[in-house]
Amino acid sequence: MRTRARGLCAWSFAVLVAFATVAAVPAPASAGEKEDRAAAKEHYVKGKTHFDLGEFADAALEFKAAYKLYPQPVFLFNIGQCYKNLGDSKNALFFFKSYLTNAPTAPNKKEVEGLVAELERGGAGPVKVDPKTDPKTDPKVGKTDTKMMPMTTSSKLFLTKGSSPNR
Questions:
Q1: Which pLDDT value is given to residue 30?
Q2: Low-confidence stretches of the chain (pLDDT beneath 70)
Q3: What was the pLDDT predicted at 63?
């Protein structure tokens, strides 16, 4: 009798685990979700281009549009970088803190916490550019400060099951 009860208990547990596993699998993305993801990627690319050109206000708008379509924390970080580079500490702090809230295990958590602390102390103002050595006008001049760059999104962020990174 005990053997049968153990077998029934084990079977019930296996069914429960199987049900929980099936319930945890996300549903396939709908056509609308795929379109939103593709549009978000376009906004991200445009935002990165604006950022690379020093057009931080335009970059922030594109990253916000991407986030609205596909709310991934990386966009919040990028928006924070835009505001930081514009010298808008209040908005930069808001978006960096939002990023840390939405990505508590982010690989760059320590660096972002450092940016937050620096902004709270009143440092990390806008990027000061000398027109004679501005990388926007002379691409051979200047070094890239990675603290000022937007975070690149993994191509995996925009891939769906069965899609190709070349699309």
A1: 86
A2: 1-28, 123-167
A3: 97
CB 66 within 8 A of CB 44: yes
Cβ atoms of residues 30 and 38 within 8 Å: no
- Please state, as a whole number, how many other Cβ atoms lie within 10 Å of the Cβ of residue 139: 8
Residues 141 and 133 sit within 8 Å (Cβ to Cβ): yes
Question: Model-level pTM?
Answer: 0.63
CA distance 68 to 148: 23
**Closest of 151, 167, 162, 135 to residue 72, by C-alpha:** 151
DSSP 153: P
| Domain residue extents for the chain | 31-158
Distance from the first to the final alpha carbon of the chain: 60
What is the DSSP secondary-structure string of 33-63? Answer: HHHHHHHHHHHHHHHHHHHHTT-HHHHHHHH
Could you please state the CATH topology (level 3) that the domain comprising 31-158 is classified under.
Answer: 1.25.40
Residue 151: which region, alpha, beta or left (left: phi > 0; alpha: psi -120 to 50)? beta
Burial call 4-22: b when 16+ CB within 10 Å, e when fewer: eeeeeeeeeeeeeeeeeee
